[in-house]
Design brief:
Layout lengths: L6 E3 L4 H10 L6 E2 L5 E2 L4 E6 L8 E3 L2 E3 L1 H13 L2 E6 L2 H5 L2 H4 L5 E2 L7 H4 L3 E2 L4 E3 L1 E6 L14 E5 L3 H9 L4 E5 L2 H10 L4 E5 H10 L3 E6 L4 E3 L2 E2 L4 H16 L2 H10 L15
Parallel strand pairs: 1-7, 4-7, 4-8, 12-13, 12-14
Antiparallel strand pairs: 2-3, 5-6, 8-17, 9-17, 10-16, 11-14, 11-15
Helix pairs in contact: 2-9
The structure holds arginine.
Length: about 270
């Protein structure tokens, strides 16, 4: 499968965001033939937060990844092109960006949670995840108890940060804005370990043999694509495309592209437990 070309759009500034909230987005909302209203004519605008490899990251100036391919399929079914906007994860997971009309949907390896359900509407689940722990090889840090008194990196606004606050009270939490900064902190020894979703950590460890995923915490998470609360027309198309991708085998193809093996035939796995 070829990697998809996607326009790199600059993050909208705080000022532009305020302007958009006050007087609607600059371009007139456009309606597709199927009756789905988009913030910008001919474009399905996606909010995401980079980098989150292999779900969304930059490669050679293009934003690519599992989620990008999934949303490209939604855009194709709508007869439009996808444009991806990179913004802080907090403004995605809070529903703020969707409510301000910054994007039509959010695809960011984002877990469906009860709190988030109050602030946006989610598609049917499209990916399973659980929290995991990454540390330098040989650290011996492989459980919540082992992290007592240790510095643990968390990513701002994520389910991993919530899990660490609630379930790993003995650790000293250090918050990072994105996954790259979090992993660099583990590499450099600024922290002893980091918590994040198993998909991204296993992917990183596979390419960086100095780090290893030592445990998973069985949080049983599912990723969903978010739309503004009440945007039923778009949500129905998202769910229809997700169902199509399952039925016609495209989901497995996309999965294999980014994970190197079909679903259920995991290329790598970490021991589980808590
Ligand atoms: N799945 C986690 C959550 O929803 C982490 C997602 C982070 N995604 C990102 N693109 N930075 O909280």
């Amino acid at each position: 499968m070829t990697r998809t070309r996607t326009t790199v759009a600059a993050a909208v500034s705080a000022l532009a965001l305020l302007g958009a909230a006050a007087c609607g987005s600059e371009e007139e909302p456009a309606t597709t033939e199927g009756g789905v209203e988009l913030i910008s004519a001919g474009t399905l605008t996606t909010c995401t937060h980079l980098p989150y490899e292999p779900f969304q990251f930059e490669d050679g100036g293009e934003i690519v990844g599992f989620d990008v391919d999934v949303v490209d399929a939604i855009a194709a079914d709508l007869g439009v092109e996808q444009e991806v906007i990179d913004i802080p994860f907090e403004t995605i997971q809070s529903g703020e960006a969707l409510n301000a009309g910054q994007c039509d949907l959010a695809a960011a390896g984002m877990t469906i949670t009860d709190v988030r359900e109050e602030n946006m509407d989610f598609s049917t689940p499209y990916f399973e995840a659980t929290q995991a722990l990454i540390t330098p090889v040989g650290s011996g840090l492989d459980s919540a108890d082992a992290l007592e008194g240790r510095r643990l990196a968390v990513q701002s606004g994520t389910t991993g940060a919530v899990y660490a606050e609630e379930q790993i009270p003995g650790a000293e939490l250090v918050t990072f804005e994105d996954l790259a900064l979090l992993l660099t902190a583990v590499e450099s020894g600024q922290v002893d370990a980091a918590i994040n979703d198993n998909g991204v950590l296993l992917d990183y460890a596979a390419d960086n043999p100095d780090l290893e995923v030592t445990t998973e915490f069985n949080t049983g998470e599912q990723y969903g694509i978010g739309v503004r609360t009440g945007n039923t027309a778009l949500l129905e198309q998202v769910d229809a495309t997700l169902a199509r991708l399952d039925d016609d085998g495209s989901y497995d193809e996309i999965y294999t592209t980014w994970f190197g093996a079909a679903p259920g035939e995991a290329a790598s796995a970490a021991p589980t437990g808590s």
